[in-house]
Amino acid sequence: MQGIIDKPFSPACEENKQPILEVLKPRLIAAHSVLEIGSGTGQHAVHFAAAMPHLRWQCTDVPAHLPGIRQWLDEAKLPNLPAPLALDMETDWLAAFSGRGYDAVFSANTAHIMSLAQVERLFAGVGALLPAGGRFLLYGPFSIDGQHTSESNARFDQSLQLQNPASGVRDRRELERFAAEAGLALEEDIAMPVNNRTLVWRRLASAAAPVDGGTSGQ
């Protein structure tokens, strides 16, 4: 009973898991192994792995979050959900995850929590991990050309920086710069509910500068 009481739960994850899944399914249809960076409670992983049984979904997060994720995974008992692994952007995380055969990476609501240096490290690592054509799907709130897409996102950005001056809503152009350095091109910018977006990046065959990414909404 104690484990049930302590199992983490995020109302936001419960609300956004299906809209995110609808974006992921057609874009991960040819993928086999996905690395999720920052799995949070584990709710997303369980929902996505159940809906996409062809994928091996690898959860990761900072060590403090792993016990809660394990509770969700243990309860789900899905064969394509291995035990969660520790991943901290302040460590040499790439060395621990390279060579494991991931052909896609997913991350939700992490870029605004990380420092800018950590976000740059995130993109550099993803670019090194993914094979040519592999996708990196990044969900969350983003500004565009220095402008917030809603008043609520502007307020959220202010609250984040009051809690931690190193955090904040990231601008898409800034992420495009990090991506270009990592050999990633913006393929889609998809509008999501509650003023969020999913940015879909594709690993280029070479380190050449990417072309300007297309946009779409849904």
Automatic annotation (TrEMBL):
Protein's UniProt keywords contain Electron transport: no
One MF term in the entry's GO annotations: methyltransferase activity
One GO BP annotation of this record: methylation
Signal peptide region: none
Domain of life (superkingdom): Bacteria
InterPro entries per the UniProt record, alphabetical: DUF938, SAM-dependent_MTases_sf
Keywords: Methyltransferase, Transferase
Pfam families xrefs: DUF938
Keyword match tRNA-binding: no
UniProt xrefs under PANTHER family: UPF0585 PROTEIN CG18661 (PTHR20974:SF0)
Name of the protein this chain belongs to: Methylase
Lineage of origin: Bacteria, Pseudomonadati, Pseudomonadota, Gammaproteobacteria, Chromatiales
